[in-house]
Write a structure and sequence with these properties.
Elements: H1 13-16, H2 19-24, H3 30-34, H4 41-49, H5 60-64, H6 74-79, E1 108-112, E2 115-119, H7 134-137, H8 146-157, E3 164-168, H9 177-188, E4 195-199, H10 202-205, H11 212-220, E5 224-228, H12 238-249, E6 254-259, H13 268-280, E7 283-289, H14 304-314, E8 325-330, E9 335-339, E10 344-348, E11 351-355, E12 361-365, H15 377-382, H16 387-390
Parallel strand pairs: 2-3, 3-4, 4-5, 5-6, 6-7, 7-8
Antiparallel strand pairs: 1-2, 8-9, 10-11, 11-12
Helix pairs in contact: 13-14
The structure holds iron/sulfur cluster.
Residues 124, 127-128, 131, 133, 137, 169-171, 201 line the site of iron/sulfur cluster.
Length: 391
C-alpha cells in the first residue's frame, strides 16, 4: 500500500479504505492544507487568490501522495493552486469547448453527431488545478436532479442518432451506487444506445470508491467503458492499480486520458513511463490532451509542438498501444483534432516517400487502381445498419 501522510497513520484501515470516510475528511481549505503540507509563498497566495474562483479539495489519500519537500511534485501541482491560476490570459475562455452553446437540456451537451455528454454531478474527489470544466465543478450547479435526469434520458431516447453516451461532470463515481444505477438502467434500455462511457478520476484520486459492488454494477450494463485520467506514473499506486484491475477483471474496459501539463508531465520520458505503467495494469493509453484554453491555465499550457515532439519520441520507439492520440479540443467548440509528426517526406510519381522513426526514407508505391468504393456495402447496409452507421 502507498505511504500515508503521518497525520493519518492512526486512522484504522477500515476508515482509510472507506471512500465516504475519505470524502468526509477531504482537505478543503488553505488553513487545513497548511497544517499538512508546508506551502510555498506562491501556493499560499494561489490558495487565497483562487478561493472565490474554484474549489480547493483533495482526499487524504491523494494528499498523501504529495512530495512535501518539492514544489514541482506532479501530484502537488495538480492539487494545490499557485498564484498564476488566478490570472486570465488573453484568449482564455470560461467555457473553452463551447459546451454551453450545445446544451439542449440542463444535463446534456450534444456537440458531435452520434454521441452526447451527460453532466451527472458537479463535485469531485479532488479539484484538479487543470480542470477546464470548472464553471461546473466550481460549485453552484448541483447534483443532477431527478427532473434533469429524466429530461436527459428523454433527450437521448428521442435522438436515434445517439449511440454513445459519455457520463461525466464532475465525477459520476461520487454518486451512490443506487443513483448511478438509476442513470445507467434507463440509458442501457434505450435500443439505439450502443455504449456508455464514464469519465472519472476516482481510480486516481479515490481508488477505494471502486468496490466490487461498483464493478459488478457497471458490468451489468455493459458495454460500459471507464475513461480515467492518470497524468503521471506517481499516481499509479498499488491502490490505484487494484481499482483499475477490479474493473477490468469484472469485464469493464478502462482507458486513460492524460492531459499534457507544462513542468508536470511535459516530457517523452514521463509520458512513456505513464503509458507503460497503464498498460501493465491493463489500462489503455487513449488520449494525450493538449491543455484547453480555459481561464487561469496558461501557466500549465505547453506549446503545440511539445506534444508532437513527445509523440515523435514514442512512435516506433515503443509498442503502438503505448502511444496515445494527441488531441487538441479546438477553442470555442470546434471539436477535437489529433496531431502527429509528419512522416511524409514527399509525393513522387507513382509513390510517396515516407520516413520512419529512425529518419530512414522509404518509398511506398501507390497502386494503379484508386477506386475505393466497396460494392458489397449496399448489401450490408440493407441488412439493417443503425441510423448512426448509415449516416
Ligand atoms: S476530476 Fe475532472 S471534472 Fe473534477 S476537477 Fe478534476 S478534471 Fe475537473
Amino acid at each position: 500500500m502507498s505511504e500515508r501522510h503521518p497525520a493519518y497513520r492512526d486512522v484504522s484501515d477500515a476508515d482509510w479504505n472507506d471512500w465516504r470516510w475519505q470524502q468526509r475528511h477531504a482537505v478543503r481549505s488553505r488553513q487545513a492544507l497548511e497544517k499538512l503540507v508546508p506551502l510555498t509563498d506562491d501556493e499560499r497566495a494561489g490558495c487565497d487568490d483562487t478561493a472565490a474562483i474554484f474549489r480547493l479539495g483533495m482526499s487524504p489519500y491523494y494528499l498523501s501522495l504529495i512530495d512535501r519537500a518539492h514544489p514541482f511534485c506532479p501530484v502537488r501541482r495538480q492539487a494545490i493552486p499557485v498564484r498564476a491560476e488566478a490570472r486570465v490570459a488573453p484568449g482564455e475562455l470560461e467555457d473553452p469547448l463551447g459546451e454551453d452553446k450545445t446544451r439542449p437540456t440542463e444535463a446534456i451537451v450534444h456537440k458531435y453527431p452520434d454521441r452526447v455528454l451527460l453532466l451527472a454531478a458537479d463535485h469531485c474527489s479532488v479539484y484538479c488545478r487543470h480542470c477546464t470544466r470548472r464553471r461546473i465543478t466550481k460549485g453552484g450547479e448541483a447534483e443532477l436532479s431527478k427532473k434533469a435526469m429524466e429530461e436527459a434520458v428523454a433527450y437521448v431516447a428521442s435522438h436515434r442518432e445517439v449511440r454513445d453516451v459519455l457520463i461525466s461532470g464532475g465525477d459520476p463515481f461520487l454518486l451512490s451506487d443506487e443513483r448511478l444505477e438509476a442513470l445507467l438502467a434507463p440509458l442501457h434500455a434505450i435500443p439505439h444506445v450502443e455504449m456508455i462511457r464514464i469519465g472519472t478520476r476516482v481510480p486516481v484520486c479515490l481508488p477505494m470508491r471502486v468496490t466490487d459492488a461498483l464493478a459488478k454494477l457497471l458490468r451489468k450494463y455493459a458495454p460500459v467503458y471507464v475513461v480515467t485520467h492518470f497524468n503521471h506514473a506517481k499516481e499509479i499506486t498499488p491502490e490505484a492499480r487494484a481499482a483499475c484491475e477490479r474493473l477490468v477483471d469484472a469485464g469493464v474496459p478502462v482507458e486513460n486520458q492524460a492531459v499534457l501539463m507544462r513542468q508536470v508531465n511535459s516530457s517523452a520520458r514521463i509520458i512513456k513511463e505513464l503509458s507503460h505503467r497503464c498498460l501493465a495494469m491493463r489500462v489503455r493509453p487513449y488520449y494525450l490532451h493538449q491543455m484547453d484554453v480555459a481561464q487561469g491555465l496558461e501557466h500549465l499550457r505547453t506549446p503545440l509542438r511539445a506534444g508532437v515532439e513527445i509523440l515523435e519520441q514514442l512512435r516506433g520507439h515503443t509498442t503502438g498501444l503505448a502511444v496515445p492520440h494527441l488531441a487538441v479540443d479546438l477553442p470555442g467548440g470546434g471539436g477535437k483534432v489529433t496531431l502527429q509528426p509528419d512522416y511524409v517526406v514527399e509525393r513522387i510519381a507513382g509513390g510517396t516517400v515516407l520516413r520512419n522513426f529512425k529518419g530512414q526514407q522509404y518509398v511506398y508505391p501507390e497502386p494503379t487502381e484508386t477506386d475505393c468504393h466497396c460494392p458489397y456495402d449496399e448489401v450490408w447496409l440493407a441488412r439493417g445498419a443503425t441510423a448512426a452507421d448509415a449516416a
